[in-house]
Each structure stands twice: as C-alpha cells, then as structure tokens.
C-alpha cells in the first residue's frame, strides 16, 4: 500500500515498514489545484516528513514514545496535476481501502479541499460521525468564483453531508458575511478566534461519539506559521494548538481519523511551519491512535 512510483523515499520519523501490521497510516495528498491566493501546498507532505527527522521520538506532553504506536507512512497519493475531480475520487478510494483494512488514517495536505473526499469516505462507515474543524477560515462557501470544487468549500459540503449540527469549527477569524450567517442560522457550532477554551466546553458534549478532526495550519498566527497559502493575522500560537490536540487526546471522544493541511513550504524559508506541523502530527499519532 505504498505509492512507490511517486514516493520520495522519506518517511515520517519511526514509521514502520509493514502496512499490514500497522494500526495507523500516514498518507500525503499533494494537491493545490483550486487555491485562491498562493499555491504550493502540494509540497507540504514531503516537507513535513523531512522536518519530522529533527523531532525527538518522545513526547513529554503525553509521556509516550513513537515506538509505542505501530504506524506506516504510505507516501503521497499520485494525484493527477490540475484535475481536482479525479484527485478527489482517488483520495476517497484510498480512504475506503484504509477503512476496510481497519487503519486509522492520518492525512497530510495539500489544500483543504482534500478533506472533502475523506469526509465522504468516513461517513460511509460512521453515519453518526461529527467533525472537529480547526482553521482560520470558515470554509463555508458553496462555490468560489462560480466553482464548487474549491478549498473554501469543504466545511459547507460537510454540513450538507452529515448535518450542520454535527460540525464544530474552532479558531475561525475569516470568511464572508454570508458564511458567518450560515453558521449562525444552520445550527452548526462555530467558535471564533479561540480554540482550546471553547474545546473544553464542547468535548463533553461529544463524549462517546465518533469524531473526525481536520486541522488547517493557518489557524496559527503567521508569526508561528508563515508557510501557508492564505495567512491570516490574529491567530493562535503553536502552544495553543498543542493544547487543543492534547485536550482531544485526553477526552472521551472516539477519534476516527485526522488530517493536517495547507502547509506551503515556499513561503517559510525558516521552515518553522513544517517543523511545527511535524510536531503536531507526532502528538496526533501518540494521542489519538488507539491500538
């Protein structure tokens, strides 16, 4: 299940060599075909893997070591350049396979539209699922410049798929007026600006539920993550996002999968963005993957 023909040879630190024996699978979605500002997130998965090589394998936050989790890095799905519809179908087909094999999927983006086929695949298995969405942007548009396949639409599509009352957005600080009106009127949960404190209030409501988590790196302030396509001032710190990941890890929700998207390395010569992203992925592996 590794995409050898398109694979660079670099894997996330301490990735195991055996897909069949793994509990979780990391996979890349190198797509930025619909971005509205700065492209380049298709290079995010590879740079996150490379940055992971500088990580310690031990998390002092969770008192756990990566040797305790059996995970496999499948490389990047070889998506057809410039063809979003076909790319999304390929992602959904791959997630269908991971679910059928009982794997915990951990996706690396890529633009945020790549989360949409994951939602579709997960919903086939978990009809009662909820989504936790951590992002600077509402992503609630029906279309962008007339185009329904856009990185500004996946959460609106999620609301229409699983019901807005099952979608929980955090950290939102950017969007059209109509998007915020939709959030208010539809029954979805939207927490503006902050993440950790509103999560503390919401997680008890989600206890026992199957929850998919999608994180856009631009929820961080550009001071902490300049390497993203649509940076937004006024965001949270890396420490606050780590706190949110750990709150979820220590909650009673059943996390069924996760993705981290919109790392665009070209805009961050310091590499602090992929370095931060790789640490978030380490904490996700250690905190959310159940054997």
UniProtKB/TrEMBL annotation:
Record carries keyword Membrane: no
Keyword annotations of the record: Hydrolase, Metal-binding
Keyword GTP-binding: no
Top EC class of this enzyme: hydrolase
InterPro entries in the cross-refs: Agmatinase-rel, Ureohydrolase, Ureohydrolase_dom_sf, Ureohydrolase_Mn_BS
GO molecular function, one term: agmatinase activity
Record EC number: 3.5.3.11
Family: Belongs to the arginase family. Agmatinase subfamily.
Protein name per Swiss-Prot or TrEMBL: Agmatinase
Organism: Alkalihalobacterium chitinilyticum
Lineage, opening ranks: Bacteria, Bacillati, Bacillota, Bacilli, Bacillales
């Amino acid at each position: 299940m590794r995409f050898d023909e398109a694979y660079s040879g670099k894997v996330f630190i301490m990735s195991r060599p055996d897909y069949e024996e793994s509990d979780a699978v990391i996979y890349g979605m190198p797509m930025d075909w619909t971005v509205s500002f700065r492209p380049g997130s298709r290079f995010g998965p590879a740079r996150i893997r490379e940055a992971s090589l500088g990580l310690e394998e031990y998390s002092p936050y969770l008192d756990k070591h990566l040797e305790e989790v059996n995970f496999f890095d499948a490389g990047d799905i070889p998506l057809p350049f410039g063809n979003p519809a076909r790319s999304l179908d390929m992602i959904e087909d791959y997630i269908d396979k991971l679910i059928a094999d009982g794997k915990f999927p951990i996706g690396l983006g890529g633009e945020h539209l790549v989360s949409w086929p994951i939602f579709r695949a997960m919903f086939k298995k978990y009809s009662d699922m909820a989504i936790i969405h951590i992002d600077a942007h509402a992503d609630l548009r029906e279309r962008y410049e007339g185009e329904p396949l856009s990185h500004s639409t996946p959460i609106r599509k999620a609301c229409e798929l699983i019901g807005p009352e099952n979608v929980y957005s955090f950290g939102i600080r950017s969007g059209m007026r109509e998007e915020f009106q939709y959030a208010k009127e539809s029954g979805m949960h939207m927490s503006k600006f902050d993440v950790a404190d509103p999560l503390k209030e919401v997680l008890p409501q989600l206890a026992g539920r199957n929850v998919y988590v999608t994180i856009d790196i631009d929820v961080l302030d550009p001071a902490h993550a300049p390497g993203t396509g649509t940076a937004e001032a006024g965001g949270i710190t890396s420490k606050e996002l780590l706190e949110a990941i750990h709150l979820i890890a220590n909650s009673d929700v059943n996390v069924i999968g996760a993705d981290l998207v919109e790392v665009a390395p070209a805009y961050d010569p310091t590499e602090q963005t992929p370095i931060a992203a790789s640490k978030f992925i380490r904490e996700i592996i250690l905190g959310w993957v159940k054997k």
